[in-house]
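The authors assume throughout that readers already know how a fold can be written as discrete tokens. What matters is that the chain and its backbone geometry are given together, residue for residue. A single example would do more here than another paragraph of explanation. For illustration, here is how one protein appears when written out as sequence plus structure tokens.
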Amino acid sequence: MEMLMELQEPFKYSWNLARALIIISIALIIVYIFVSISPRFYKSFFGTALRKTMVPSLRVRYIRKLEELLYLVNTNQINNKDAYTRLSLYIREFIKKASGINVLGLSKEEIKGIGIESLSLLMEEYYPPEFSKNEKGNIAGSIERSIEVIREWK
């Protein structure tokens, strides 16, 4: 009996597809492993050395921010409560970038537990005027003390 069409071998083309899927899967696994390990690798081997070289430029940047905040306070462009909120944010950002310790979302008591004495004292000073309705605080003095903490940071 003569056939009108020629039949293909079963699965002739599926091996090419299977090879492509295997190669893509292996590539995705390698990329996943690299991405998940690289932050730890970077932080453990390069984090401290880079952070120490970044501190002088961080000092300049955050002292400038605090001086701008002091200008806003002196020209009455910002109220005390908002100034204390910004001051707290700036000093926390500086500590995070300079030391790698994330203190942005921590409370005053949690910051005390970390053991950074200078930051603990500043938070004690910031909290009453920042969260109280009646207490004004000395924002200019607080900014000056924050600038000193940044200048003396090691």
The radius of gyration is 29 Å. Residues 56 and 83 are 24 Å apart (CA to CA).
